[in-house]
């Protein structure tokens, strides 16, 4: 199967360090974001930031345009104390007080263009800071945040009382609510922090996020963890009346996966066969043919969802027509707006006889913001050479969207996925479906149980099961895996099959047979 032109669906979101040529655009976004004269940094300040601490200055680029940014500094917070002002902590805006040997990252601003506030740009910038904090082995992130709704309640309560009510969800403040939902804890109110902020009455909230991976410099054996959160979606197959209804169901699962801050959401194989439920076509190959007509809608839907909810999506699989042939294709939609595809390489007898599906001929390993991954669709996980090739090319997580008619079919997928995790010292993820659609081929009878699996050793969960669902029930199964633990296990595990494989395996197999 050749690569189709998908560039029109891809508007890439890039989080990167600010460069000098970006400064003019960043200043415009900052002024639009604050909407208050005298609050935003000026060009001279941003230029000083990138000259002194370039790693700590981030921007978000969307379709070639700067739409968000943030600035940071490293300090020893104890040297400033709880009653500091913004000018003190920022070195009068120039960060000349940046201390490379400090242990705290201090956030100076987060600005987002008002027209792009539904793309989770602030969340992406906060995540960039968290990564930086872990990278530099810093103890915590702190900042003084605005409280722009306080002026509405200033005649009724103190700043501390207002924040308490917002934290308890009895009142709403757009900044405080956003920060607490992103894992920051309120420490105290900073009076006279921002002289130009009339809405906050010059007050600010001192917020902190603690880096649980921090280790004092004396810990010579310390290694940073590389956690990844995965949501495997046990999709409910039910009849729908339109593509819009299908879209709403998919968005529900993506939205709830994003709420728990998952890095990946995984849908089951042939998820778009649900679209055949409102078709008059009843012949199996005709149903698959009908589903292929929704390819552009499918690509646009999941590309938009990945960007909107800032999550990488393995969007199950979809039947695609190319050169008068039908292929079963899985897509990786990255949260930065780009995507890639993987064809199913082994076609089951039922797919051949009922749908006439053709096999692909290329196994890919994809780069993501959380390591390298591969996708083996359903039947493909039964063939150990595929997972081995993916692992040899750097894949650390193998995703398997599957569709099973009965428990035996599910168990073949599950046991092989666990075997691949053990053999290759990788994580494997399977995503199945529940429910049924009487008139739809491949969806009239389902057995689904989704799970996340690891190698089996002391460093991993008992029996190698990170998380799993109950069978045949609609569910989102979420679990955390750690790529650094995986790396260490490959080097120093009780057994190290990746390192112990026979390099001369062809001659070795010939010899023993």
From TrEMBL:
CDD domains: NAT_SF, nitrilase_Rim1_like. One of its GO terms (molecular function) is acyltransferase activity, transferring groups other than amino-acyl groups. Coiled coil: none annotated. Residues 13-212 form the N-acetyltransferase domain. Residues 228-483 form the CN hydrolase domain. PANTHER family: HYDROLASE YHCX, NITRILASE-RELATED. This is GNAT family N-acetyltransferase. The lineage of its organism: Bacteria, Bacillati, Bacillota, Bacilli, Bacillales.
């Amino acid at each position: 199967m050749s690569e189709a032109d998908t560039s029109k669906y891809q508007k890439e979101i890039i989080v990167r360090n600010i460069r000098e040529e970006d400064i003019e655009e960043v200043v415009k976004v900052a002024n639009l974001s604050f909407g208050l004269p005298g609050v935003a940094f000026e060009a001279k300040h941003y230029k000083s930031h990138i000259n002194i601490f370039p790693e700590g200055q981030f921007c978000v680029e969307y379709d070639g345009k700067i739409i968000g940014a943030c600035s940071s500094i490293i300090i020893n917070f104890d040297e400033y104390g709880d009653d500091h002002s913004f000018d003190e902590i920022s070195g009068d805006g120039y960060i000349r007080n940046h201390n490379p040997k400090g242990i705290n990252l201090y956030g100076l601003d987060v600005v987002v263009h008002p027209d792009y506030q539904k793309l989770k740009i602030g969340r992406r910038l906060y995540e960039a800071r968290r990564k930086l904090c872990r990278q530099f082995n810093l103890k915590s992130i702190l900042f003084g945040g605005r409280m722009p709704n306080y002026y509405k309640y200033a005649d009724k309560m103190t700043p501390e009382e207002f924040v308490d009510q917002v934290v308890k969800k009895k009142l709403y403040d757009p900044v405080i609510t956003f920060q607490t939902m992103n894992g920051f804890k309120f420490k105290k109110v900073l009076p006279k922090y921002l002289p130009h902020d009339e809405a906050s009455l010059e007050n600010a909230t001192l917020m902190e996020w603690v880096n649980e991976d921090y280790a004092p410099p004396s810990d010579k054996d310390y290694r940073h963890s590389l956690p990844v959160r995965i949501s495997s979606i046990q999709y409910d197959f039910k009849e729908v009346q339109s593509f819009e209804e299908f879209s709403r169901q998919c968005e529900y699962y993506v939205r709830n996966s994003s709420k728990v801050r998952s890095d990946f959401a995984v849908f089951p194989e042939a998820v778009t066969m649900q679209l055949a439920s409102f078709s008059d076509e009843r012949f199996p190959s005709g149903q698959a043919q009908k589903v292929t007509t929704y390819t552009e809608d499918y690509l646009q839907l999941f590309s938009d969802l990945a960007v909107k909810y800032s999550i990488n999506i393995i969007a199950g699989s979809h039947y695609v027509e190319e050169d008068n042939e039908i292929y079963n294709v899985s897509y990786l939609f990255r949260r930065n707006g780009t995507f890639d595809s993987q064809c199913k390489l082994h076609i089951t007898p039922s797919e051949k006889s009922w749908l006439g599906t053709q096999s692909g001929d290329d196994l890919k390993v994809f780069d993501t913001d959380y390591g390298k991954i591969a996708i083996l669709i359903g039947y493909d996980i039964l063939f150990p050479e595929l997972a081995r090739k993916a692992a040899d090319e750097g894949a650390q997580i193998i995703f398997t969207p599957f569709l099973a008619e009965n428990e035996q079919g599910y168990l073949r997928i599950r046991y092989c996925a666990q075997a691949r995790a053990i053999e290759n010292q990788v994580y494997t993820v399977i995503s199945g479906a529940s429910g049924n659609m009487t008139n739809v081929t491949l969806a009239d009878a389902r057995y689904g149980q989704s799970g996340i699996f690891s190698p089996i050793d002391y460093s991993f969960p008992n029996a190698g099961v990170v998380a799993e669902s109950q069978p045949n029930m609609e569910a989102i199964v979420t679990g955390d895996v750690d790529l650094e633990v995986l790396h260490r296990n490959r080097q120093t595990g009780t057994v190290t099959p990746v390192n112990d494989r026979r390099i001369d395996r062809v001659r070795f197999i010939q010899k023993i047979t």
